[in-house]
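In response to the reviewer comment on reproducibility (Comment 2.3), we provide here a single inverse folding case reported in full, input and output, so that an independent group could reproduce the run without further information from us. The structure tokens appear first.
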């Protein structure tokens, strides 16, 4: 049984999605013009598609699984659900207007709003009971205000530098917080082989988020030390040849690892080592 997976072929999500699949042990295309890759050994067939179209293929059941942006999934209205966030391609979706001309969604009544995400914007306006004209543009949305096509835009904001260049300022609440997500068809049992695929990607995320920590610690401090590095399940504690000392091995979050090392040293731990995890199943 082969599962059919939709992978972004271009744009902000493409490189990171490919990298994640590679780390999960799947074959990748060798030429960016290649449209599909069959990896029979791992039971997958990869289809390289425009990220905006991916939810549609998965919603129709043509493909089993997809990697796309949460904002693109919601905008599509496709019958597909987010199964897991993938931790890359993060962005926010915001309103913006020339400095000082708008302050909140309620003030958008009767205004002209340009966006590439008309579905998301219309749903947001409806939620707030605001009637406005939404114009769908393919891209370079920021320029539309200066060219007189719109009063306001709603667009993906990552660093905010495009908005600044266009003399626009964000206003109102965050419409949407997005990142790359794994999607499957709504209301269907997961296809055979999907669970293995999902677990492999989860393994990549965990391997990126955690590091392996090893240290030696006197017996009297083992309990306190283990509280600092509790691991995911439970740390391995094994006796050292040296009387009264133990070796501890645990996975710890990369983010707090250095502080944990300082605290463990204070407690009397020595030979504290951090190593990267290349892959894992948890
Ligand atoms: N700086 C960014 N610009 C656009 N989209 C981004 C950015 N950072 C993350 N993303 C996410 O990438 C997805 C959009 O990808 P898509 O490939 O359609 O657009 P793109 O990266 O703007 O590419 P292009 O406009 O060249 O086709 C969305 O989920 C969006 O939230
Ligand atoms: O906050 P920033 O870091 O500036 O990134 C956000 C900008 O990047 C994207 O544009 P892209 O380069 O994809 O061009 P496009 O509008 O033609 O899609 C997006 O549509 C914003 O314009
Ligand atoms: Mg773009």
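Designed residues, in position order:
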């Amino acid at each position: 049984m082969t599962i059919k997976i939709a992978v972004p072929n271009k744009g902000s999500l493409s490189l990171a999605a490919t990298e994640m699949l590679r780390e999960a042990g799947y074959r990748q295309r060798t030429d960016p013009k290649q449209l599909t890759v069959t990896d029979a050994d791992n039971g997958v067939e990869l289809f390289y598609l425009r990220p905006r179209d991916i939810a549609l293929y998965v919603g129709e059941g043509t493909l089993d699984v997809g990697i796309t942006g949460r904002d693109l999934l919601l905008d599509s209205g496709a019958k597909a659900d987010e199964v897991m966030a993938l931790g890359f391609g993060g962005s926010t979706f915001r309103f913006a207007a020339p400095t000082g001309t708008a302050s909140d969604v309620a003030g958008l009544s009767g205004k002209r709003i340009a966006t590439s995400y008309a579905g998301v914007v219309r749903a947001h306006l409806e939620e707030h009971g605001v009637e406005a004209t939404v114009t769908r543009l393919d891209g370079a949305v920021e320029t539309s205000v200066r060219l007189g096509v719109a009063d306001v835009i709603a667009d993906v904001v990552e660093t905010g530098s495009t908005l600044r260049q266009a003399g626009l300022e964000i206003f109102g609440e965050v419409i949407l917080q997005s990142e790359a997500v794994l999607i499957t068809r709504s209301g269907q049992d997961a296809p055979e082989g999907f669970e293995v695929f999902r677990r492999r990607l989860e393994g990549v995320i965990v391997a990126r988020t955690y590091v392996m920590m090893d240290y030696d610690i006197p017996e009297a401090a083992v309990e306190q030390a283990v509280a600092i590095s509790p691991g995911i399940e439970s740390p391995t504690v094994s006796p050292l040849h040296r009387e009264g000392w133990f070796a501890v091995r645990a996975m710890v979050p990369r983010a707090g690892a250095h502080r944990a090392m300082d605290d463990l040293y204070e407690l009397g731990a020595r030979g504290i080592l951090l190593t990267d995890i290349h892959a894992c199943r948890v």
